[in-house]
Amino acid sequence: MTTGNQAPRPAPAGGFTPRPGGFTPRPGGGPGGRPSGPGAGPGGGRGRRFYPPRRRVCAFCVEKKIVIDYKNVSMLRRYLTERARISPRRRSGTCARHQRILAEAIKRARLLAMLPFTPDHIRATGWHG
């Protein structure tokens, strides 16, 4: 808008008109000064390639001899996090059937005080998981 005898200001090069006290873009382009878009680096490469995660196979389905038992504490500890939680299927790689059996065995071992319920139990007893 022009009022009176003021002439319109020319737009700066690059197509960006700065606002007073507003946002000014970084010279690199993307967040953190990184170039944005594929092939926008100094080498003009393709950037990072995406490799889909390798499919995990249930260890209990592969090894038919493994029996999930609440008394086998060393095996059950592998499926607990450092905060004494049961690790989810997507992280452990077990199938739905064996995850249910595994969760039941962990809960039985907890009731018999073979496994901890909370991280407080880990600190109090010195249990290494």
Can I get a quick summary?
The chain is an all-alpha fold and 129 residues long. It has helices at 59-62, 73-77, 89-92, 96-111, 119-125. Helix content is 28%, strand content 0%.
CATH architecture of one domain: Irregular
| Alpha-carbon Rg, integer | 29 Å
Note the run of SSEs as H and E. Answer: HHHHH
**Alpha plus pi helix count:** 5
Instruction: Write down the overall mean pLDDT.
Output: 78
Look at the structure and give the CATH class of one domain.
Few Secondary Structures
Mind summarizing the main beta sheet? none
CATH superfamily of one domain: Ribosomal protein S18
Write a structural description.
It is a single chain. With 129 residues, the chain is mostly helical. The protein has a domain at 59-125: Irregular (30s Ribosomal Protein S18), CATH 4.10.640. The protein contains 5 helices and no strands. It has helices spanning 59-62, 73-77, 89-92, 96-111, 119-125. The relative contact order is 0.10. The mean pLDDT is 78.
